[in-house]
Design brief:
alpha/beta; TIM Barrel
């Protein structure tokens, strides 16, 4: 099984970001034998910069972003950042990108969120060739990009897209390495995500796509307490339209209902079910009992 772990911004007691602690956590995950480390781009460290540093310090584990939002980063700028990180870590990077959410894009960054799938299509039409060192001349409604980057031959930075709706899944399957999901349970992976993604990949003559599924995980003897903590920690995701749609498909009242919690055997069985439903990779997001959770998911590698 391809198993990864989220490593987010590690903070000191005063709430400031601690890069040394972040790197130490990446080292712990790699030492446990886990296949990959994934980091989100939210409101702390720049994920690609942090992964570039960690990748130089930790030479074995694969690295990924889940995900870098597109709107505030021109595709040429993001391509340069991703290529630099890939060079720093010896080609072990998967670039996960996504739209973010209307409330963030419009209220915090000041961009229009009109026709987001069109934006992603235009963005990828520039980003993907740039990552390969090809010249681009994109004149879209939301993206303009003209130019070329100096990329050594043989460079490969696979891109996965945070795709949940049909249009985004079709785009991800037909043009990229696959998708990375969040707050999306196994039944939805099996009935919605994996089939639409693979259908698009087949139609485009591409190979089997990656289906990277990330979910909250906690190994504990008190599942009720863990779900209560998950409900509090992840409550905001239940109100964001894209995740709410996936929770509704799953029949989940909220994020706590898709969290994987319980003793080691229960957690292992639940993760195995995610693979049975069509995931190709699983990324655990430990939210409590972190050491025991990390040890348990490492046993699945």
């Amino acid at each position: 099984m391809e198993i990864g772990v989220f490593v987010e911004n590690t903070r000191t007691v005063d709430g400031s970001a601690d890069l040394d602690a972040y790197i130490a956590r990446v080292q712990e995950v790699a030492a446990a034998g886990i296949s990959s480390v994934w980091s989100p781009q939210i409101f702390g460290f720049d994920a690609l910069t942090a992964l570039a540093i960690a990748g130089r310090e930790v030479p074995s584990v694969r690295l990924g972003t889940a995900v870098v939002p597109t709107y505030p980063r021109h595709p040429m700028v993001l391509a340069q950042s991703a290529l630099t990180t890939s060079f720093a870590c010896g080609g072990r990077l998967t670039l996960g990108i996504g739209l973010s959410h209307q409330v963030v894009v419009e209220n915090m960054w000041g961009y229009s969120f009109d026709k987001p799938a069109r934006h992603m299509e235009e963005y990828l039409s520039a980003l993907l060739p740039l990552l390969r060192g090809e010249a681009v001349n994109v004149r879209g409604a939301t993206v303009t990009a003209a130019g070329q980057l100096q990329v050594p031959p043989g460079t490969d930075v696979p891109v996965v897209v945070a795709a949940l709706g049909p249009k985004m899944l079709a785009l991800a399957g037909s043009t990229t390495a696959g998708t990375v999901t969040w707050m999306t349970g196994p039944e939805t992976i099996g009935s919605h995500i994996a089939p639409l993604l693979r259908q698009a990949a087949d139609a485009a003559g591409r190979g089997a796509p990656r289906v990277v599924c990330a979910l909250p995980v906690c190994v504990t003897d008190d599942a009720g307490a863990a779900r209560a903590k998950a409900a509090q920690a992840f409550r905001n995701y239940g109100y964001l339209p894209s995740y709410r749609a996936m929770l509704d498909r799953e029949g989940a009242a909220g994020p706590a209902d898709v969290a994987i919690v319980g003793d080691a055997a229960t957690v292992k069985a639940a993760i195995a079910q995610v693979f049975e439903k069509g995931a190709t990779e699983f990324v655990a997001v430990p939210f409590d009992h972190v050491e025991a959770t990390t040890e348990t998911v490492a046993e699945l590698v």
